Amino acid sequence: MIDISSAEVEKIIVHYVGNKIREEGFKFSSNEAHTNESLNDLLLKHYLLPLSKTNNCYRFHHESDINLNELHQFSSRIFDDSKNFKEQSINIAKHLYSSSTHPNISGGDFIIILFSNIKADDISCHGIAALRIESKDDYLDIKNSDGVFELHEKTGISLSKIQKGALIISNINTVYAIDNMGQKTKYWLDSFLKVIPMKTYSSCIKASGEILNSICSKIKDTTSPLLLNNDIGHKINSSETISIKEIKEIASNHLSLEEIDSVLSNVSEKYGFNLSDDIEVESKALLPYAKKIANKARITDGVSLIITNKTYHIENISITQKDNKLQALIEMNIKE
Questions:
Q1: At what angle do helices 223-238 and 244-251 cross, to 10 degrees?
Q2: Rounded Cα distance, 80 and 228, in Å
Q3: How far does Cα 129 stand from its chain's mean position?
Q4: First to last CA, the chain
Q5: What is the DSSP letter of 48?
Q6: Stated pTM of the model
Q7: Measuring CA to CA, which of 36, 68, 150, 193 is 20 to 30 A from 183?
Q8: How many Cβ atoms are within 10 Å of 222's Cβ, its own excluded?
Q9: Would you give the DSSP letter of residue 223?
Q10: For 57-68, what is each residue's pLDDT tens digit?
């Protein structure tokens, strides 16, 4: 955890970064933006605070050499000498443009802020916040015009929710990231920041949930996923915690050891840390992932049944296939 109670805004600059695939280009600010006390307070409250409190903790990553990670390199140059801020902010903006190659990415303002006096383990650090604005909100402004209060429509940046943001902390390879508009493209984390999750309690929960999803997707027959759901549900309801070892033991009733090892290897590679047997999470934290599995039943290849009513629970599915026809008999339990 980091302490931002004494943090201050040192520098801020705003660039425009478009969509590369649409050849929208970029525009760089010729100078740093002017700040004042009230603006700084807003930046600390609405940008730094949410980023510092997010559970999405990552570290920079590169396949061969961490120094080849562009954002790690550019941010390090700023941390080494803040006089490099403007030059390196332009490099960061260019890198963002190079990463903006998906047709669904919207061009927009790109804000970079240098903070000082952030405490990490009682050590004073600097922090760099990178914020991409993909959409702006309409709002009304009221002005007094010769005794008549007039309404004026304006467009601006909302402070209520960070769209895409990252906070890079000096001295430690830690990046706090938020992506609230990444449903259609994951370029912010994968291409621009190029980060992988750190081994935190939150990332262990997400990794455990992904293991459940991957195990369920590998089961080919119709009844085994239902039995897996029952086994997982029983474990969650009967114990306060569940470990990776226990998930593997439950999965071994439905998949081979080789298939389970393949699932763990893929999830471990994605999250960037070893999923050892002793990793343990609270059962209630894994419950939402288990419910998603329980609410989806495989009928046959490419055909699944999704239950949206929480009072219905699938007990059994019988499949009969003859000629070019398939018949599914579904038995459900309706909870009061």
A1: 150
A2: 53
A3: 16
A4: 44
A5: I
A6: 0.73
A7: 68
A8: 16
A9: H
A10: 899 988 889 889
